[in-house]
Amino acid sequence: MTLEYSNYSPAIKAGAVVDADVDYTDSIDTDDIKADAVTTAKIADGAITVAKLSATNNVVSVQYTAETAIATTGAVTYYLQATASGVLSSASFANVAGLTKNDTNYVTFTLVNLGTDGTGSTAMLAVAAANTTKATGGVALVANAINPLVLHPTPANLAVTTGERLALTVTQSGTLANTLTFPTVALDILKQ
Prior knowledge:
Elements: H1 10-13, E1 59-65, E2 75-81, E3 86-94, E4 106-115, E5 122-123, E6 147-149, E7 159-160, E8 165-173, E9 184-191
Antiparallel strand pairs: 1-9, 2-8, 3-6, 3-7, 3-9, 4-5, 4-8
């Protein structure tokens, strides 16, 4: 018996032993699945919970891009709403223009959880030079890149509930070298 192997696996094409009585073109059906395999038929409705999801599938991103550039002086606040309950796992800022570090002319980032009624005052970013563009301890903003912000070190400060308003404020000190065009704020919430 001669087997035509053009439609078979590379192992068979490479000369693996072939049993002439086996149909190697047969598709997998329920008889081929092991009894202990996880199938959709075995997963009850509601059985997959947030706690069982991987961290990648368990993150909700909240993002806001402003059409108006951040001026070289003053301050601007962007308001975002938590779309899931959990813990803030990352915060970042991006814009079209870069900004070099400078101890006189710099920006400071703050993020405050205002709660659902707008009166909250929980700081969600570390109060540190790392959340500035100061030459001493700060970080330059890279144009068209994700510039991560440093989260508050107290875990309780990072908790959010669906519907809470989060205010990211960018405060300019001195006069910036340039405007920050198309600023984007992105927050990742790890659902719990």
